[in-house]
Amino acid sequence: MNQNKIWQGNWTFILAAAGSAVGLGNIWKFPYMAGTNGGSAFVLIYFLCILLIGLPVMMAETYLGRYGRKSPINSIKKVVTDFNLSFYWKILGWLGAIAGLMILSYYSVFAGIAAAYIFNFMPSNEVDPVYYSLNYFSEFVGSPMKMIFWHTLFLGITCFIVGKGVIDGIGKTINFLMPTLFLLIILLCIYSSFTGDFLRAFNFLFDADFSKISTSVIIAAMGQAFFTLSIGMGAIMAYGAYMPEDQPIAKTIPVIIILDTSVALFAGLTIFPIVFSNPILSVSSGPGLLFETLPIAFSSLPYGSIFSSIFFILISIAAVSSSVSLIEPFTAWVEEQQIFTRKLGVIILGLFAWILGLGSIFSFNIWKEIFIFGFDFLSLMDFLTNNIMLPFGGLAICLLVGWVLEKEKMKKDLKMNSGFYNFFIICLKYVAPISIGTIFLSYFFS
Ligand code: PFF
Fold this sequence. Notes:
- By secondary structure, the chain is mostly helical.
- It has one domain: Amino acid/polyamine transporter I, CATH 1.20.1740.
- It has helices spanning 9-21, 24-36, 40-68, 72-82, 91-117, 129-142, 144-163, 166-195, 198-206, 215-229, 235-240, 249-276, 287-299, 304-336, 342-362, 377-404, 407-414, 418-445.
- α7 (144-163) crosses α8 (166-195) and α8 packs antiparallel against α14.
- The longest helix has 33 residues, at 304-336.
- 4-fluoro-L-phenylalanine (PFF) binds at residues 20-21, 23-26, 100, 103, 227-228, 230, 233, 235, 322, 325-326.
- The site of 4-fluoro-L-phenylalanine has 16 residues, from α1, α2, α5, α10 and α14.
């Protein structure tokens, strides 16, 4: 890898990885998952998953990327060759690249809806905001053409940025988008704490209801930890390949995790005060929370339509900075193998994601009644990626780095003190694999 392909300064990696991590998962999924799964009981388990699984896996993934200095598929291949491992380990790189395209396919559908909602202005004299909002959403998702338009636009922007390259495309865009994102979330949080019911939102998020903890809540918290940190599929590995050699991984990854978790908490403290400002509304899960409930709530607040647009701009920014990292691992491989140029490669891969995304679009309308193993198409993609492929990828990364890589060199490269290093290795070798394994087994016995 030549020196032109290293992030400039330590902050670009931090912002790029935080850009990947902060996305729909934080602003939309985390608040409703916390709200419907026992408030702070869920938050506590989620924090544990982040600390004991997320942190070590993210550090390990970054390390693997920097070790290989190539696309995740080829970085894993290098580890396999260097350590004389079985050919089957190579599946890890491929699984991640494929999971990235699968996630991108439905991610782009939701991001497209969010982008469209920037322009959803409810008339100020609307007499029935509830009807207006529900009707607007059901008409929107009932129209495959509208959804395809926004899905295409969002994927097009993603591919355009990635096509320009990692340093000039992703790096430069992220350097501008992430500070904007942080500013917007703080602005919105201030707005909602002044106009909404902040106290009730706070209690809702942080009042513990331990009776709600069950295996499925633990599974959900772990799936969310993987999804929100973008780990287990090579996105962070792909970015790690461009990390400066002397950047201390052990100090960098906690910063990213703190940024990601703060945005999730801020998002909860933005959305729920607004929802609770309206006594007729309750917390809904799924797309309903963002696209039905919130617009109703915004409609009765001062400057509601402006802040509603700002909110959807925020979501769109968060989504773009994540979506680029979903397609980057595969694109990097296509470019490295010189199968196509980067630009042509990303167009072809984008086309795959686009076609797969049609399935998710149709599960809102013409395939509404079609179920595969009890899931509609969109939920099946979501389940396969978040609950199977990412944790499986994470498990393989733990085993590879925890049990196979040379420890002395790693300790030096990671620049950790002994206490942190021991914690890292114990988590990678035992805590994370046993937790992920147990949760996997529980699928089959529950
Ligand atoms: N972390 C992103 C979010 O929270 O929305 C989603 C994501 C991006 C998952 C990139 C996986 C990934 F590789």
